[in-house]
Amino acid sequence: MRRSTLAFALVAAAAGPVLAQQPAAAPRPAAPAAAAQRPAMTTAQRYENAYYLWDAGKFDTALVELKRVLAAPDADQFHDRVAELTGEIYTTSLVAENASAPLWSPDGRLLAYTAGVGAQRFFRVSNPAALNEPALLEGTGFGPTFGADNRTVAWVPLGAGSASAFNYAVVGGRGLERVNVDAPAITSVTAFGSNPVRVAVIAGTPGDSTARLLVYSVGEGSWTTVSTGALQPVSLLRSPDGRRLLVLLGERGAFARQVPGFQQQSRNTAFAELRGNALGAVEGGIMPTWSANGRALAWIEPGGEVARLRLRRDDGPVRDLVTITGRFQAPAVSPTGAYVAYPTMLREDWELFAVSGNGGEPMRVTREIQHDHSPRFISDSLLLGAMGEGRHQRSYLYDLRSGTRTRLHHNNSVRTVAPEYEWAVSPDGSRVAIVTERDGDTVTPHRHLWMTDLTRKVSRQALVARVDSNLAAERALRANGRRIFAPIAAQVRAATEEVSTGRIYEYQKQLFSFDSKHITQPGNWKATNWLEETYRGFGLQTRLQRFKTVAGSEIEVANVLATIPGTENPELVYVVGAHFDSRAEGPGADDNTSGTAMILEAARVLAKRPQPATVMFVAFTGEEAGLRGAREFGRVMKDSMTVVGALNNDMMGWSNDHRIDNTIRYSNPGLRDVQHAAAIQFSELITYDAFYYKSTDAQALYDAWGDIIAGIGSYPILGNPHYHQVHDVLETINHRQLTETSKTTVATIMYMASSPSRLTGLVAQGSTVSWTPARERGVTRYLIRYGPPANPMQYSATATSPRAVLNSLREGWHVAVKAVNARGMEGWDWARTVVK
């Protein structure tokens, strides 16, 4: 299940939804006595009703019910449930924009993080209880670490000579000191200990398989070289309390690099604790992990058939906790060592288990078909775990005593996803620093650092405001969608009703039968030829776009292009794409036979319904080999045809539960809203959204034609555990979900190709606004919106020519313009500018 189990007993007979009263045209007969005596909904029943409305994607109706729940006399009993259903329970505050790598001081009173990118990186040390106050320490560089005194900070500098130097400073005390190391390069700069604080580094030559462990004493200014015996230092791991330091060891040191067929990269196979100026006993094992108090250490000792999870408390004996068969990831130790959690793969997805520090039978913590991983303890009985693939991770809290799960972080919106990437739990477990794309922007390189306070739940006032805001946004999205589709709603509905689940299955079955469709495999050309024949059979103008590429040797591959010429604006083209190739090791039923089959059915339905603009369906090859087909398409077509909009579709056939849902992955917010409207009105698909196109064929389309891209992918994004695996097979696909996604795509195409594209050449100077005339024939007027930055769409105007004089315009105001055609179809996106 994706969502938490309902935390209340289900009523024996749930009442139906409450309908808004409407004024009657004439008196109605009195209701029967039985109906008049029907009891009112209890708050529990009303919350249950809201929960299942939300589950069905009827967010607007659900939010109305939740408002009533929060207004009830016993609303306190449902506060947390409403908060989690609509977002997060605990208060979350922004720490810093464009920030990563959060690290707490050992006492939890300070928080360090790195901001900026590349040569512009810098770090800050702040008081997490006073985030609005200036930083306590700031410096150019990255990777700050604290000594056990909580005040000494060491970090990696930038600039000339920085490869073999580190800086340190004392918060509220000694200023910056630079320490040069007699070595070509250093890595793993780590402060630890107190009285004196020391800084350990690994020194060596890039590419060399040997390395040295050096320790610098702050205050004394002296160096010690620590022998690592026959093994080489690979990396360092300081305990969270700052007192202890592990040296991870391997046969090749930290600077070793891989040489194919000859040498391997550095990899640790053992570790030892630094005790004074020498290493303690070497312990064989990998993935060592400290407890928060630094008194317990867990690690995994791999073997031939099985691995052992081991624990040592203080300097006591090593205890074997559990034997792991199959794959495993790094464990986590609770603050006192009472429990150890670890991820393991039972079948095709990662699950979290926990075992007592005294040994015994492990308990299974998670049962979600998506990957569960990256455990961190909040307390001895509360575990933080991440769910999902690396590009859409979400955090949850697991109570090991009750077995309940609580969502930790969300952006509190209905439809926009909020991927998470890093989590740092404060030493006392009261706060969690989270690096997240809370705004759903996965494209721009920056991510933001937020703080979730587990001691402060959202207030009733804030929760009511959240529900009200989301209800207004959802109502506006739906109302706008009905309005813009109104001129062609009947035609769209007739088309979407022809989408066939059976046909979609047959397309998938045929493509699946070609096995791997990677460009190096025979199935690639089998699929290419079959797609060409199938599109031609629909009556589309079809051809292969052949090109040569290198995959071991030079080979010929091809994209499949199938076109429905426009009836009014044939020179304007909308591209609808999906890659048909797969990974070499698997048939790629979801990635991306699902997208290929979905647009095939859209093409079949639209083949007998030509649109005003040209629609070109493209089956891209070589996506899994580096977007080769899409990049070739963009390179060749960029200057030979006018592409005014595009949809790229990738992985939308897998679902992890009963819900039919997918994510709109867009660069253009206008197309995003069109796709939401298409799904709401003409399908049963529940849609979410993310500003997302990187590492997909959409990136190649964006590079060629700019910000005119949308399309559909999975929800959660890449949540399918079969993704890029040999078991991405046909029986894991939800064919009804593909049907509803195809309906959404058909409706989106019809809207795009029937409405004006985004205008170009918009200029606003003084009181005059002008733009290039719409490229489409039949445009009758232009809509203009303008206003100050705080309300940029405040005022409106209409023009019949591509120029307008707006006497109330002011410098710095925003202006947006779109075209409207004779059918009443509005352009799908605004052209925007700022008044100069």
Automatic annotation (TrEMBL):
Any one Pfam family match given in the protein's UniProt record, by short name: Peptidase_M28
Keyword Signal included in the entry's annotation: yes
Taxonomy, superkingdom: Bacteria
Gene3D superfamilies per record: TolB, C-terminal domain, Tricorn protease N-terminal domain, Zn peptidases
Record keyword Kinase present: no
Signal sequence, start to end: 1-20
One GO MF term: metalloexopeptidase activity
A biological process from GO: proteolysis
Keyword annotations: Signal
All copies of domain Peptidase M28, residue ranges: 559-747
Alphabetical list of InterPro entries matching this protein: 6-blade_b-propeller_TolB-like (IPR011042), M28_fam (IPR045175), Peptidase_M28 (IPR007484), WD40 (IPR011659)
UniProt cross-references to PANTHER family, sorted A to Z: METALLOPEPTIDASE M28 FAMILY MEMBER (PTHR12147), PEPTIDASE M28 DOMAIN-CONTAINING PROTEIN (PTHR12147:SF26)
Name of the featured protein: M20/M25/M40 family metallo-hydrolase
Organism expressing this protein natively: Pseudogemmatithrix spongiicola
